[in-house]
């Protein structure tokens, strides 16, 4: 088992104002970054198979959002879902084991990168189908309403997903039923190779909220504080029974879409420009500037997180491979 | 005491009502199921009995509502979705096939989707090609879905109660022509097991395996055949996934002849799976005649009544099909 400190909201104000909240957020950003770099490297060396979609450059979205959630709140995630899973509190060893096709992985090797779920932390699953999780989030939110809990559901998805019918159907349902759900769009400017400039006429994805009479906001998705504040407002609304919100987080992925990407659709200048807005370095610098952390403390956190990722890899590699013997008996849950 | 007789639609409504009374996590969602009572009148007064939260009218949004059912099921509810016509499941296929069916397996077994999707299926109402299909093969081909085709009021209630209790997604295809048919249905809650075929009639000469509305039609045909001196066994698999071949194989070993009857088009229809399993043995060694299939024609369902009747097996077709099989033609 390898974990980081669970995210927690600041006592008041911004994440970067509150030492405990800020330190946990920094751990989360670093864990996502190092996890992704580690699997990228293992993939390149042929130690992992399949494909995967990395969140490098987008760490602040999952981190800022999940800082506003409780463990009993739910999320639905996407093909680019490692960040959401980590920020919601998953065991890094079980994630790594899944990618390494081990029996101890979250899906026992049946799902891989695109299907990690973690019932314990309320992660209802990544999804290989673009926009597939959005109606599911609405349904999980409907269940909270029927059960009269005050839990909320966050649905993460990309810019490309907002052109799918599932997005529109889910937002409409959430709107007419006032569901406690927050729709979080990670607008990284591209759905695979196709830019938002070509795939939609609206300037901002948040404008689409107007069609469903819900608040729509656009925030800097590379800024943990901005993402947290928008999410906090939306969560408060949702818990109070005031219905859904659409939050657009503007961000950028540094790496290719998946393992087949040759970056033919964007320029090196554009990528370099966005690297100057790196959410991880930016947050760390902010904390040091604000005096929340010393440089030494930040280095210590970085070292600890690196060690956790190394532990995750070592533990996962030692686990048994996933077992074909149980395949047929796993399709259905046994009837009592 | 005379046995209580109710319709197929009433039997379904009774099952839902009893399930909702005994389990607060059961709720219904679908188009026009509230005050309207459902396009085929199945939900009826449930809205008045249980209120708008639990008998939930939805926008016309099949992908959205099936997705919402999947999400609610994932976190402990037991949703029953009504899709107004089974043809409209095409709009919701991602949620049915890529989500509901795969979640338990693909996500490693911690989560499951205890949801029921009910939909009116089949032809015979003059509704033409987009409101009359028999799409059971679509669902039966997807590992992770259970597929149930109730053929009588008694089966409709018992199978639905099993489906609601099942921790997996169950597709229940109800035949439109059966909604108004009546039969004895016990008042108490009872469960008909999913995955167990039923032998409705035993005869020594041939085995008829039929699904959906073809079950009652085959029983009628068997009565006529009996008067001609031909005794047929009639078997209703009741559930296509999982499929119970035991009674089918046993019967063939007695009769040596089998006729498979379905409403859906012949090409790649579900009944071909039964034929294939017979051919895998041991029943094939008992056959004295080749397997006979009686199916819908490989055309979309047409509107005109004489055309519509022509494309799916009717009572005389089943009778003459059985006679042909007996004569070896
Ligand atoms: C329904 C569906 N269509 C297409 C794909 C192939 N695909 C996978 S990810 C992707 C791009 C999605 O873009 P976006 O929603 O912006 O998410 P991002 O990859 O940028 O995080 C595509 C086209 C898919 N998995 N599912
Ligand atoms: Mg994108």
TrEMBL record, chain A:
- Alphabetical list of CDD domains matching this protein: TPP_E1_PDC_ADC_BCADC
Q: Which GO terms describe its biological process?
A: pyruvate decarboxylation to acetyl-CoA
Cofactors named for this entry: thiamine diphosphate
Q: Which UniProt keywords apply?
A: Oxidoreductase, Thiamine pyrophosphate
Named from the GO MF annotations, one term is:
pyruvate dehydrogenase (acetyl-transferring) activity
InterPro entries assigned: DH_E1 (IPR001017), PDH_E1_Alpha_Subunit (IPR050642), THDP-binding (IPR029061)
Domain Dehydrogenase E1 component: start-end pairs = 31-324
Q: What is the official name of this protein in its record?
A: Unannotated protein
TrEMBL record, chain B:
**InterPro entries per the record?**
THDP-binding, Transketo_C/PFOR_II, Transketolase-like_Pyr-bd, Transketolase_C
Q: Does the keyword Nucleotide-binding apply?
A: no
Show the SMART domains listed in the entry: Transket_pyr
Any Pfam family matching the protein: Transketolase_C
Keywords, alphabetical: Oxidoreductase, Thiamine pyrophosphate
Cofactor(s) needed for function: thiamine diphosphate
List each copy of the Transketolase-like pyrimidine-binding domain by range: 6-181
Molecular function GO labels: oxidoreductase activity
Q: Which PANTHER family match?
A: PYRUVATE DEHYDROGENASE E1 COMPONENT BETA SUBUNIT, PYRUVATE DEHYDROGENASE E1 COMPONENT SUBUNIT BETA
**Protein known as:** Unannotated protein
- Origin organism is freshwater metagenome
């Amino acid at each position: 088992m390898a974990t980081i400190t669970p995210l927690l909201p600041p006592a008041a104000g911004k994440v970067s104002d509150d030492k405990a909240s800020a330190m946990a957020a920094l751990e989360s950003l670093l864990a996502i970054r190092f996890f992704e770099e580690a699997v990228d490297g293992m993939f390149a060396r042929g130690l992992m198979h399949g494909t995967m979609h990395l969140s490098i450059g987008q760490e602040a979205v999952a981190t800022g959002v999940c800082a506003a959630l409780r463990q009993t709140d739910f999320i639905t995630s996407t093909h680019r879902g490692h960040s959401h899973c980590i920020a919601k509190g998953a065991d890094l060893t079980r994630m790594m084991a899944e990618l390494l096709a081990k029996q101890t992985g979250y899906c026992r090797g049946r799902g891989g990168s695109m299907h990690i779920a973690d019932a314990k932390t309320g992660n209802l699953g990544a999804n290989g189908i673009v926009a597939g999780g959005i109606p599911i989030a609405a349904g999980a939110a409907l269940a909270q309403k029927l059960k009269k809990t005050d839990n909320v559901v966050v649905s993460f998805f990309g810019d490309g997903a907002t052109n799918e019918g599932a997005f529109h159907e889910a937002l409409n349902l959430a709107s007419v039923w006032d569901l406690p759900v927050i729709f979080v769009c990670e607008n990284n400017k591209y759905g695979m190779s196709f830019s938002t400039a070509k795939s939609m006429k609206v300037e901002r994805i948040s404008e689409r909220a107007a069609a469903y009479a819900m608040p729509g906001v656009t925030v800097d998705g590379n800024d943990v504080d901005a993402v947290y504040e928008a999410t906090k407002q939306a969560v408060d609304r949702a818990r109070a029974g005031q219905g859904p919100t659409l939050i657009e987080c503007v961000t950028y992925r540094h790496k290719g879409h998946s393992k087949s990407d040759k970056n033919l659709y964007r320029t090196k200048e554009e990528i370099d420009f966005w690297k100057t807005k790196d959410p991880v370095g930016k947050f760390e610098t902010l904390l040091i500037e604000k005096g929340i952390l010393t440089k030494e403390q930040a280095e210590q956190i970085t070292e600890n997180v690196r060690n956790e990722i190394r532990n995750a890899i070592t533990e996962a590699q030692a686990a048994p491979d996933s077992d074909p013997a149980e395949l047929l008996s796993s399709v259905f849950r046994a009837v009592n | 005491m005379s046995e209580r007789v109710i319709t197929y639609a009433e039997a379904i409504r009774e099952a839902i009502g009893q399930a909702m009374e005994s389990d607060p996590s059961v709720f219904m969602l679908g188009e026009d199921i509230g005050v309207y009572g459902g396009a085929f009148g199945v939900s009826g007064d449930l809205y008045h009995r249980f209120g708008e939260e639990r008998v939930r009218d939805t926008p016309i949004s099949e992908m959205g509502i099936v997705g919402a059912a999947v999400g609610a099921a994932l976190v402990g509810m037991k949703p029953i979705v009504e899709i107004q016509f089974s043809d409209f499941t095409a709009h919701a296929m991602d949620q049915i096939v890529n989500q509901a069916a795969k979640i338990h397996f693909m996500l490693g077994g911690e989560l499951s989707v205890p949801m029921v999707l009910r939909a009116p299926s089949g032809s015979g109402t003059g509704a033409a090609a987009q409101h009359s299909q028999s799409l059971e093969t679509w669902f039966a081909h997807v590992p992770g879905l259970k597929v149930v085709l109730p053929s009588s009021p008694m089966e409709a209630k018992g199978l639905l109660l099993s489906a609601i209790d099942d921790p997996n997604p169950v597709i229940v295809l109800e035949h439109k022509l059966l909604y108004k048919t009546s039969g004895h249905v016990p008042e108490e809650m009872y469960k008909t097991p999913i995955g167990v075929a039923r032998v409705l009639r035993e005869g020594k000469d041939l085995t008829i395996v039929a699904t959906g509305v073809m079950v009652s039609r085959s029983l009628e045909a068997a009565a006529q055949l009996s008067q001609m001196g031909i005794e047929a066994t009639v078997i209703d698999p009741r559930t296509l996934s999982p499929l119970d071949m035991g009674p089918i194989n046993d019967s063939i070993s007695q009769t040596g002849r089998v006729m498979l009857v379905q409403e859906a088009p012949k090409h790649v229809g579900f009944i071909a799976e039964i034929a294939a399993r017979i051919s895998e043995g041991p029943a094939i060694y008992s056959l004295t005649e080749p397997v006979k299939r009686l199916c819908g024609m490989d055309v979309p369902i047409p509107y005109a009544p004489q055309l519509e009747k022509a494309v799916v097996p009717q009572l005389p077709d089943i009778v003459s099909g059985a006679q042909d099989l007996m004569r070896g033609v």
